[in-house]
Amino acid sequence: MSLPKGLAEDVSRNLVMVAQLIDDEPEKAYEYSRVALRLASRVAAVREAAGFAAYATQKYSEALAEFRAARRMSGGVELWPVMADCERGLGRPERALAMAGEPEVQKLDKAGQVEMRLVAAGARRDLGQLDAAIVTLQSPELASGAVHPWTARLRYAYADALLAAGRESEARDWFAKALESDKDGVTDASDRLAELDGIEFVDAFDDSDDEDDVEGIEDVEDDVEDVEDADDVEDVEGGIVDVADDVDDVEDVDVDGDDR
User: Residue 87 falls within a domain, yes or no?
Assistant: First the structure.
């Protein structure tokens, strides 16, 4: 369906904002998608964008309705996996599994089929079927050494399922493989690996220690002034001792904010 030039430009501007905001500010992206939807509800791309914006804000019923509308308009199957995931979001994992067995899956490209496998494995986990989830993820795509845009997420999902099943050693290996293929940082595989290895990240700089550093330096400065203002040798000698003690206190604070 074609739109008048002015209307098309307004719709495009809103769709651009949806694309720019959907990852970091999904609620704002959703608002822009509703504007585009009001302007051009009979355009498949608009319905699809509205679906993804609703999906990003966990409005799964609304997202599913928009995806269905977009699919009717376009006739494509690309949205099949995310539609199945909406069923999961609505608490209907059985429907997601049923969709995983429909002929539409065979019409998906490789990325779509992997996505469908991820959704099906998630549905199995929703049902408490951990072993079945693990088996669902075992595939030629998982075993392949080639790296694709979906590789890190597939390996991560497999590692997470293994860990949930108590197979920690295998899970660690697959988290490592996920990290190796995750060039864009789409997973938190590095954090999961650190957790399994017992590594705890702490803040290297503690505000309270910083305050102690400042107070210690101020003490030194005050004692130096006392020495300069001293009237006799005894006062000078006492002041110098105070300065030396305060300097020691400052030096005893580690650069990382921890007392040695």
Answer: yes
Q: How far apart are CA 193 and CA 200, in angstroms?
A: 11
- pLDDT grade for 219, boundaries at 50, 70 and 90: low
**101: CATH:** 1.25.40.10
Q: Full-prediction pTM beyond 0.90?
A: no
Per-residue pLDDT of 138-163, as tens digits, reads 999 999 999 999 999 999 999 999 99
- pLDDT band for 228, please (50, 70, 90 cuts): low
Section 203-213 average pLDDT:
54
Last residue of a domain, one of 113, 130, 150: 150
For the record, the structure tokens of 100 come out as: 């995983």
CA angle 49, 91, 73 (to 5 degrees): 30
Largest CA distance in the chain: 99
Instruction: Identify any residues that bridge with 259 across adjacent strands, giving them in sequence order.
Output: 253
Residues 218 and 128 in one domain: no
Residue 1 confidence (pLDDT) = 61
The count of domains in the chain is 3
In Å, how far from its chain's centre is CA 25?
A: 13
Q: Report the run of H or E that residue 208 belongs to, with start and end.
A: helix 207-229
Q: How far apart are CA 41 and CA 220, in angstroms?
A: 71
Domain that holds residue 191: 151-201
User: Are 96 and 166 within one domain?
Assistant: no
**How far apart are alpha carbons 128 and 164 in whole angstroms?**
10
Q: Answer whether residue 257 is part of any domain.
A: no
